[in-house]
Amino acid sequence: MDTPLRKRVLRRPWWRPFKRHLVRNLPRRKRMLNTWLHRVLGNRLFDPLLWKPTEETVARGLMVGTFIGLLPFFGLQILLSIFICYAWRVNVTTAALATFISNPLTAPPIMWAQLKLGRFLLSPWVIVNPIDPVLIQSHWMQYGRPFMTGAIVSATALALLSYPAVHAVWYAVESMRKRTRQRGA
Length: 185
What we know:
The chain has 185 residues and is mainly α. The protein has 9 helices and no strands. The protein has one domain. It has helices at residues 16-24, 29-32, 36-41, 48-51, 55-69, 77-88, 92-98, 107-122, 135-184. The longest helix has 50 residues, at 135-184. The chain is extended.
């Protein structure tokens, strides 16, 4: 007795409902008009420079996100980067993603390196009084000042390096696209 071939049942990927939910609930201009956020921030909220990636806005957004991400403002990094992006009209998405440079996995080595850098930079000027009656001041001089100095210096240096790096990568990708178009044509 021959059995008919069963039609192969195509199963949906497990992530499709989540994707549909995310796409359906993305903030859209139509939904955000006349909301409290629109009333507070104004029409600048819909500025294309904040949302559409261009070479300059992505470079500036990465610079802002890297700078804020390397500062020890854990829990406030994304909010700070969004406020700066809104003020400077740079890409919000790039800045928010760049703040994840310091996550729970990478934060301890980054903080250790910033402390070492701060101690290296402040070593000629650090005068620690061995008989300091105030313990907090002693700990601030020994750990806090070098850490904050290292954090500010490293955040500034990496932010300034990320700006030309984005332009270089953007140029390389565009030239590769141009070459592939010329070969195909």
